[in-house]
Amino acid sequence: MSSSSGAHTKLTRRQLIQGTLGGATGLVVWRWPWRVAHAAAQPSGQLTVGVHVTLSPTWFDPAETPGIITPFMFLYALHDALVKPMPGNTLTPSLAESWSENPNGLTYEFLLRSGLTFHNGDAVTTEDVKFSFLRYKGTSAREFKERVRDVEIVDARRVRFHLHEPWPDFMTFYGTPATGAGWIVPKKYVEKVGDDGFKQQPIGAGPYKFVSQEAGIKAVCEAYDKYWRKVPAVKRLVFTGVPEETTRVAMLKRQEADITFGLGGALAEDVRRDTTLKLEPVHPPAVWFIYFAEQWDPKSPWHDQRVRLAANYAIDKQAINDAETLGLSKLTGSTIPREFDYALPIEPYAYDPVKAKQLLKEAGYPNGFDAGDLTPNPPFYSYAEGAANFLAAVGIKAKVRTVERATFFTSWREKKLQNLILGASGAPGNTPVRLDAFVTKGGSYAYGSYPDIDELLTKQAKERDRGKREALLHEIQRLMHAKAMYLPLFEPAFLCASGARVAYSGLGKVPQFAYAGPYEDIQLKT
Amino acid sequence: MHRYILTRLFYAFISLMLLSVTIFCMVRITGDPVVLMADPGAKEEDLQALRKELGLDRTYIEQYIIFISKLARGDFGKSFMYRVPVLELYLQRLPASVELAGAAMAISIVLGIPLGIFSAVRVNTWLDSFSNVFANLGLAMPSFWLGIMLMLIFAVNLQWLPVQGSGTYKHIIMPAVALGLVFSAANMRLARSAMLEVLGGEYIKLARIKGLPERLVILKHAFKNAIIPVLTFACINFALIMNGAVVVESIFAWPGIGRLLYEGISSRDFPVVQTTVLLGGVMIIMVNLVVDLLYAYIDPRIRYGQ
């Protein structure tokens, strides 16, 4: 017994060394992965974004999101949505763990993730979801008010949106950058500080918390280590508004900025030649096109489909692409971006000036005609100059008329721009949303419409069967192409670049988002 | 003296009232800010709601009365774009502008005035030719071009200075040089011509005949009289740089008033444009008043109210 006992208690020197080494190894093995993971999880470093526009505090508040993508540059950092586009999926559940549509298409239910918190530590609740939706007054707010009957808080994690009638595009409006209605703000905090106070010191549930801002100049954010998806790799995120393009490229070269957007062809070429920098073109959902504003006027040459076709054949779109965006834009035969839901990819009419002249001859214009003004979307005047030169080569004489940006949009909306309009739309959404503004009868930017297309548009709006709806929308796009309703140029490359310190920029990774993201995935070189 | 100042202040008030009417009307001629602020697909009702929120649904006369009555209470309104009181924005940007204008003015005076004086004293020598070349170059080079060149050389290639921003002495060098060189060329031309005019005066000849040392003739008798127009010009330049360094501030992302004005104009932010222009006007009027008062100190022959 004693011997047995002695055998258990006696410790040889070898056993002692083995035990010590084993214990130390075990401790290291046990602690090491945690330490590595912990170290990796700690955000570090600073990423400076040279923003191509002046920063506006209204962009810090999802409730005032206009129909442009720029505010989402900040929303993706500071806030989070129930559902939003993420790499590989346009409708990715984010604050919502899941969402479902009931069979009659009248109710959408969202289930919140558990344990979500805002940057001030308050829990993200279904009450916040309802509040954020009701205070929303940005783009399409009127549409939401007309179509959503009620927002019902089912329980602490479940919220239901009841519609008056089925709205197949509800998730496009609520879950993509088509609007900012699905981005959640803290009710208690907003009520406490007010709308303007919120814009000065926003609090959200996004991967970065707001630190400070110099109005119009700079916004500083810091990694939020309780972000549900992951802890951001970069600790500090600084947005600096530098509208001057040359300065932004100089900042990139000098490592004063790590990422920048919106470069023109010449400076983008400079970036491409610099081996320390990386030119990263992004393709937002936009299309450049020429619109024949007079096609519904029987007295106008543009009323004749052959003339519109001639214009389509007359322009060497690839040449303009090469000159303006280093050939990085994508030629297209449609005004609907390929990336959009229900888009029908259509090849453009080939550059064929001989055919263009032939079509003009058949239409009764063997010597061409005076096409009046070609008014471009400012400041893209050189696009119009190129297009006008190609048109002139086949006899269509258009004069480039430049106007200031606000005048351009006001005049277009009020249908005061005449002859030819060189425009673009980069508004997020899907095919029906784009058609609604540019093709539908009474659309904001439509000078007229075609009865066959209008009929199909009305049908698709009520169609809940996805396959049938897609067929209808494809037919509309085919008709637009056949009628040469527009002269599509290309889906432009938005020329962005990252600097020498950036390991992963995330530029162009999120669908329908023109910038770098998701921010929590961005990495700096160590 | 007091009467003179009061009269000048009265005229200043009239000038500012006229300026307020002019700027109020001019910004409204540029168009409707709501079109820029609203979503491209916004309906007319949405635009109207936004106009109402900003007080732009009222008649121009009503808007002006509201604007002036608020102004009388020191309320310059709230920025359409930034959603903060404009005065707060203006005061945030003011120190940077004062800093830049001060540095640019220092460069323009230190370089321009001595060159102009030497050039006049040594007229038709190599120094005069050099000064003239310098002046022509300075006046011919657009400040935006000079700014970009400085940036490429000193920030990108040599990496001595930061590209943009503010906060340290290194940040101010390039924008101050880009602005200051233009004004130093102008100062040089003005100092030279003023000095040449004074040097041809009878009292200068008398001073020389009396046997006064040349240094004393130049510095005590000629310079003091020649400096008056140069000083006026330099002070007005200071106010102009403060409010109008739009291009240089944009290139170097300098957070000053010029950039604020540019942003205001671009986004049709009426309160921002009205405030920056009005306060710019106040500054120029005040500077002029101060310069007039300085005249008496520099040249005792000048008496006010006579």
UniProtKB/TrEMBL annotation, chain A:
<dbReference type="InterPro" id="IPR039424">
    <property type="entry name" value="SBP_5"/>
</dbReference>
<protein>
    <submittedName>
        <fullName>ABC transporter substrate-binding protein</fullName>
    </submittedName>
</protein>
<dbReference type="Pfam" id="PF00496">
    <property type="entry name" value="SBP_bac_5"/>
</dbReference>
<dbReference type="GO" id="GO:0015833">
    <property type="term" value="P:peptide transport"/>
</dbReference>
<dbReference type="InterPro" id="IPR000914">
    <property type="entry name" value="SBP_5_dom"/>
</dbReference>
<dbReference type="GO" id="GO:1904680">
    <property type="term" value="F:peptide transmembrane transporter activity"/>
</dbReference>
<feature type="domain" description="Solute-binding protein family 5">
    <location>
        <begin position="91"/>
        <end position="444"/>
    </location>
</feature>
<comment type="similarity">
    <text>Belongs to the bacterial solute-binding protein 5 family.</text>
</comment>
<keyword id="KW-0732">Signal</keyword>
<dbReference type="InterPro" id="IPR006311">
    <property type="entry name" value="TAT_signal"/>
</dbReference>
